[in-house]
Design a protein that fits this description.
This protein is an alpha/beta fold and 185 residues long. The protein is built from three helices and four strands; from the N terminus they run H-E-H-E-E-E-H. A four-stranded parallel beta sheet has the order 2-1-3-4, covered by helices on one side. Helix 2 links the parallel strand 1 and strand 2. Helix 1 runs parallel beside helix 3. It is rod-shaped.
Amino acid sequence: MIHFRHHLISLAAVFLALGIGILLGGTAGQSWFAMKEQEVLKNMEAKYDQALRSNSELKQQLNRILVQMERSHEEVERLLATRYSDELRGSSVYVWHADQQRMGRLKQMFRSVGVNVLSYREGSVPLDGPLLVFGPVQPDWLAKLPRDCRWLYAEEVPDSPAKQWGLLENVQKLLTEMREARENS
């Protein structure tokens, strides 16, 4: 049989070992944990810095593309001006658009080829130029215009140079039809 003293000594040894483990684990483990924490923070900072550099590079690339696109648009406007300025210079075009439509770029394009852009008011009759109507739905008053009034309807304002070129072609045709009708009458 094992004496009580041996049980007491083994229990004391177990508690002593637990105490030493807690003491060593608390001090030695804390530095290990702090080192791992610092390593994780350094990795996160490196990824953040890389993301900032990447973001900056993408912004620069986007700015270069926007500048290049603006130059291309200006070149297209110059081409349009040389192509249509002789035929359209001094002509007038009436424009009606829905409130949410943005017309700045289109008006600039018309002005670059020498076309006077005039706002259309419902009820008036545009006799000296075609009417361009932009809106999601064709207005009812459009059908009530006189037969000799020339108009063109589009759901949206042309936003690309190719669409703007097509619109100028159609405006040129309408103006030619109006001139021919005046000459025949």
